[in-house]
Amino acid sequence: MNIANLLKGLAGLLWVGWVAILAFVLYRAARKAPLKTGKSLIIIVLVIAIVMTTVSSGLVFTNPEERGVVISAVSPQGYRSEALQPGLSWIIPFAENVVFYPISQQTYTMSIAPSEGAIAGDDSIAARTLDGQEIYVDASVIFSIDPTKVVFVHINWQNNYVDLIRAQVRGIIRDAVSQYKVDEVVSTKRFEMVKTVEDNLRTKLEENGLILNDFVMRNIAFTAEYSASIEQKQIAEQQAQQAKLVVEQKKQEADQAREVAKGVADAAVTRAEGEAQARIIQAEAEAKALQLIADVLKDNPNLLNYQYITKLGPDISVMMVPSGSPFILPFPQTNGTGSTTTVVP
User: Fold this and answer.
1) Last residue within a domain, chosen from 45, 66, 99
2) Which one, out of 14, 280, 293, 302, has a CA that is 20 to 30 A from the CA of 340?
3) What distance in Å separates the CA atoms of residue 29 and residue 20, rounded to the nearest whole number?
4) What are phi and psi of 204, to 5 degrees?
5) pLDDT attached to residue 9
6) Number of domains forming the structure of the chain
7) 295: number of Cβ within 10 Å
8) Structural domain that includes position 39
9) Which residues in the chain land under pLDDT 70?
C-alpha cells in the first residue's frame, strides 16, 4: 500500500471516529449527563479529519507501469499538459483529480474462436483476395501507450483507444489481403503481407499516441467450399506424386535389369573370347607338334611302323585281317635273325 492510500484510509477512519464521538456526545446530552470535553473532542477530531482528508486528496501515488492525467478545474484548458510520472505527486485537493493509463504492453486479439478474442464469438476479420476468394484472418496486436503521449491519448480517445486498434487492424488487413491471390496469402507472399500490415499499422498507431510492439497473424481460414477444393487438390497431388514414384521405381528396375543383362552379355563375350583364344593356342600347339612329328618321320620313315608295332600286345606273333583288306601300313622286309610277325590275310 502506498502512502497516499494509507492517508486516505486514516482519513476515513477519522471520519468514522468523529461520527461515533458525535453520536456518543449527543447520547450523553440526551441522558442529561453531558460530557464536559465532548464539544472540544468533536471539534478536534473534525479538524484532524478535514486536514487528513485534504492532505490525502492532494497526494497521488503513480505506479511505474502507469501514467496519470491530471484533470484540473483551475487550469484554463481543463487539464495539466504533463502527465504524472511514477512516484508521489501533489495535486490541488478537491480541484483536481487523476485518470491513470497503463503504459505496459497490452494485447488485443480478434479470433474466430469464441473464447479467444477480446469480443466473445467469431471476431475474425473477413477479407477478399485479389482473385475473389474470401478468407478469415485471426490476428493479435501487442501494443502500449506512448508514455510521452498519455495526455494526447486521453484527450482523443480516453479509454476507447482499443476501438482505434480494432478499426485500424481490420481495415489495414482487408486492404493488404486484396493485393494478393489466395495461394500467395497462404504461401509465398504471406510474410510480405504481414510486413505490409505491420508497417501500416505502426504508422497509424504512432499518429494516435500508441506504440506497436508486435503484430501476429495467428491463422487464416477459408470457406467450406474452398477448403474442400484445396483438400481435393492435395489428394490429387499426392496421387500424382505416388504415380511418379511408381514410374521412377519401374524405371530403376528396368535400368537394373539392363545393367544385369549387359553384365551377362559382357561375361559371355569375355568367356567366348577366352575359349577362342584357348583354341587358337591349342591349334597352334598341335600344329607345331605335328610339324615336329613330320620332321622326325621325314628323316626316319620306319619310325611310324615301329610305333605301330610297339602298340601291339607283346604276345602277338600272328594277326588275322579280313580277306582283301589292304595293309594299313607297309611293313619293311626283315632279314637277319630276329623274330618276325606274320600278318595272314
Assistant:
1) 99
2) 293
3) 14
4) -65, -40
5) 86
6) 3
7) 10
8) 3-99
9) 1, 227-231, 234-235, 297, 302-345
Task: Decide if 338 is inside a domain.
Answer: no
Global pTM value: 0.60
According to the model, what pLDDT value does residue 296 have?
Answer: 74
